[in-house]
Design a protein that fits this description.
32% helix; alpha+beta
């Protein structure tokens, strides 16, 4: 259970750091957790992760809006943060359920 929680917060922190860093161009990380990969992918490989982040990090995330799509390639999300009301928009550029890989392209905006 502790590894599951640690994994969740690591992913959220990584996601937030991408938004906060103007210098960061690419973020890749691996973490071993004690849950089946299929369970992790159900959350991360869909819109579930973004919605869970908004629900669990209300002190950091004001809202997550689905601008387009349903979690597949082409989906566009807009994440608005509480501190300073900056926002981050991302587009899913690849979602491969077989290989459990998701690529996103993001850009920072000011509200």
């Amino acid at each position: 259970m502790v590894k599951q929680i640690s994994f969740f917060f690591f992913l959220l922190f990584s996601w937030y750091m991408v938004v906060e860093s103007q210098e960061l161009k690419h973020l890749t990380n691996e973490l071993e957790v004690n849950v089946p990969a299929s369970n992790v992918w159900k959350l991360y490989g869909s819109l579930g992760f973004s919605m869970l982040a908004a629900q669990e990090l209300k002190n950091m995330i004001l809202s997550v809006q689905i601008l387009k799509g349903d979690g597949e390639v082409g989906t566009i999300l807009k994440v608005t943060f509480v501190p300073g009301n900056s926002s981050y928009t991302e587009r899913f550029t690849m979602v491969d359920d077989e290989k459990r890989v998701k690529w996103q392209k993001g850009w920072k905006e000011d509200v």
